[in-house]
Amino acid sequence: MEKATRQVDMAGESWDSWFDGPGVTADFLTERDQPPVQKREEF
Q: For residue range 2-43, what is the model confidence (pLDDT) as tens digits?
């Protein structure tokens, strides 16, 4: 059985215009709170 998917696009825009647009500032997420790495069971 094939999984249902949905694509959401910006109205009146293409992805190219989004990726070609201005980037983020140098201080974007520089001090992001990141939880410690979780210890997980190995396979």
A: 788 887 776 777 778 878 888 888 888 888 888 999 999 998
> Phi then psi for 17, rounded to 5 degrees?
-65, -30
How is residue 18 written in tokens? 């989004």
Q: Shortest CA distance to 13 belongs to which of 23, 5, 25, 21?
A: 21
Is residue 17 within 8 A of residue 11, CB to CB? The reply is no
Cβ-Cβ contacts under 8 Å for 18 (sequence gap 6 or more): 10
Q: For residue 23, what are the CA distances in angstroms to 3, 26, 29, 33, 42?
A: 33, 9, 13, 22, 38
